[in-house]
Amino acid sequence: MSHHPDPNPSSTPELVSVTDVRVLARYLLELTFDTGEVKVIDMESRLWGPTFEPFRSDYALFLRVAADPEAGTIVWPNGADWDPDELYAKSKAAVPA
Fold first, then answer.
1. Which residues contact 89 (CB under 8 A, 6 or more apart)?
2. DSSP state, 87?
3. Could you tell me the pTM of the whole model?
4. Which of 3 and 17 is assigned the larger pLDDT?
């Protein structure tokens, strides 16, 4: 029986899901993943295109972000959502308090 360890153990898990989300500051989200990791991502520079641009003029709408357990990612009432794998790859580990 041969065992081949993952040559890159810090690689993105194949299927990752967001289980919780919290707005920390303007457009800064704290994401909890099903891996148990808590990561932070600044969404401001990513809010472009017809689906996401409304968040720039209506911050209250951005604040309505929620984790959708069925979709495994973050969603907004206007139907916007984000690829959880991209969120995982682009976010940074949260610094412990």
1. 12
2. H
3. 0.83
4. 17
